[in-house]
Automatic annotation (TrEMBL):
Compartments where found: Cytoplasm, Cytoskeleton, Cilium axoneme
Domain of life, source organism: Eukaryota
GO biological process, any: microtubule-based movement
InterPro entries noted in UniProt: DHC, Dynein_2_N, Dynein_heavy_linker
Name of the featured protein: Dynein heavy chain linker domain-containing protein
Coiled-coil regions, chain positions: none
Gene Ontology CC, one term: dynein complex
Lineage, highest ranks first: Eukaryota, Haptista, Haptophyta, Prymnesiophyceae, Phaeocystales
Keywords: ATP-binding, Cell projection, Cilium, Coiled coil, Cytoplasm, Cytoskeleton, Dynein, Microtubule, Motor protein, Nucleotide-binding
Domain Dynein heavy chain linker intervals: 2-155
GO molecular function, one term: dynein light intermediate chain binding
Length: 155
């Protein structure tokens, strides 16, 4: 990709896959005559590299994130959640991915970044739904289990 851009700018074709590719081939591009264009290609490559490193870091991070399973008081029921530190990391990672989606250098990694956006959003949505369901269950559990009146009415 970047080599092709350099060849387009210089209008010189080189075979970078040729085992004989050497510094002489690079010099033949006369890159010194295209400082601004070469600078743009280098800047693009650096930004794409940074994006790629961020994606690798996201993958490494989320491979090892564990959910918490805490036993509910006075029952055998376990409640699932994400620790505060991991929840904050989820929010931070969503912001990072959102920033990547707005980047002009997205095209190379668009599929992967879109996947991360979808996955992190799904995790956040599911955690929110689980939290709400568990909160409601805990509230109702005290009404049904703790109430003598309800116990009399229910078979």
């Amino acid at each position: 990709c970047h080599w092709q851009k350099l060849m387009d700018v210089t209008k010189v074709t080189i075979d970078i896959k040729d085992p004989k590719f050497s510094l002489a081939d690079l010099i033949a591009l006369n890159l010194q005559d295209y400082v601004d264009d070469v600078g743009e290609v280098v800047d693009c490559a650096n930004k794409e590299d940074k994006m790629e490193q961020t994606l690798v870091k996201l993958a490494e991070t989320w491979k090892v994130v564990d959910f918490n399973f805490d036993q509910h008081a006075d029952s055998d029921v376990y409640l699932i959640g994400l620790g505060e530190e991991n929840f904050e990391m989820l929010e931070e990672n969503q912001l990072v991915v959102q920033g990547m989606m707005a980047s002009k250098y997205l095209s190379t990694f668009e599929e992967e970044v879109t996947g991360w956006q979808r996955n992190l959003s799904s995790v956040s949505d599911v955690l929110g739904q689980m939290s709400e369901t568990q909160r409601k269950w805990a509230y109702l559990e005290t009404l049904f289990i703790g109430s003598d009146e309800v116990k009399k009415e229910l078979p």
